[in-house]
Amino acid sequence: MKKNKRKKSIFSRLVKSYVIFLALSIFLYFAVAVIFLIKMGNGDVGNISPQSIVQKDGSLNDLNVLEKNGGWVEELDNEGNVINIYGNQQTNKASYTISELANLLDLGYIDYDNYGVIIKNPKEQTKKSYSACVRCVGNPEKVFLVCYPSDMVDYKITFQLTGGNGGSAGSFILVLAALFLTEVLLISLYLKRHIDKPIKQLMSGMDEVSNGERDVVLDYNTDKEFEDIRDKFNRMARKLKESEEEKHQIEQRRNQMLLELAHDIKNPVASIKSSVTALNEGLVSDDKLKDYYRTIDMKAERIRTLTEDMNTSLKLESDSYELVREEKDVCEIVRRICVEFYEDITATGKDFDINIPEEPCMASVDEKLFGRVINNLLANANKYNSSGKLIVLNLSSENSEILIEVMDDGEAIDEEFVPKMFDEFARGDKTRKTDGGTGLGLAISRKIMEKHNGSLKYIRAEEMNCFCVRLNAQT
To answer: What is the rounded distance in angstroms from the CA atom of residue 31 to the CA atom of residue 36?
Structure first.
């Protein structure tokens, strides 16, 4: 699987999208503005600016835009007299004084408001303000005044040349609004498409899981947040599959346990039934009566042991089953059990080597169940160690952990049997013998240790079978 590059978050994507959106908006604004200016200037933006009407060589640009907005150009001689007029002059000014020209050259514009300029429309004898900018160009030098209505141009900040009806400005605003809405729509569609893809895959995956599919794996590359959701969904689907597989295995084990229990109970029940029948029919002689009663008692005891062990095993598998835990000295518990087993072990001719420290090792345990684990391990070591002569029990504490080792020098357990030795009804002998153990002892012992958050394992070390019990110590 390829290593993913560091992914961007949705927030960074949104920021990036809106930065692009802003940049595009500014670009489009200026683009549309330039297009409108070119259109207004009859193909040349310079036709709109009063300062650029007169070229450096003394020739004039297209005056249509200037005339359309009520402006004109005056050419002056060296004495300030108007010698040529280009366009439709809106004033009665024929010459300029030296003072006026000096102000004009100093400021770059002149205000005609004091001269009572008369609009040509005879119906409206109203004063109107005009402004002008000076251009001294050419060789020999020529002086031009570019005149325009003052209310049509703000020469200090911007300039505006529009028709009297404002149609161009309205069209400009409409085009900008249309482009803005189009851009918003495209950005929204982009984000929607980018977010929709992972959401649809997530919804599809959920539908598959709800329909019973368990091998669902989402695989897409997108923003970090959605990849986190993808990974969590995959983990959830995997755990759900594992949980159902584990549940199926538990059900299979329980069914197998019931079959094994039925098998193990069948023979003692048959033996009890045949003994009772023989007794009822008077087929048993007086000297054999005790043997028959003893057989019935033994078989009944075996049935009781089987059912109790089965009940304990099923209870330990239940999540609702809680141990009765108390702070206990594990050394004292194990020491007491060793005392109980000492006579039985030495009676078989084996040596029993016990190594338990004097200082207490405290732990939170269910004393009855924990004692059953040690009991079972010692019983198995004594019962199945037919070729050896030594049983060892070591107890030690290190790094907040208590370790108990029950070892014997008997033959190694069959390697094929080791992986399943902690399963229910597992037995090391090749044939099923109903007079043997129940096959639940090690399975129950491991479940008890798991309930204690500990462990029970088997290893073969130094020519000895070793069962290792690990338990968290109380600190």
So the answer is: 9
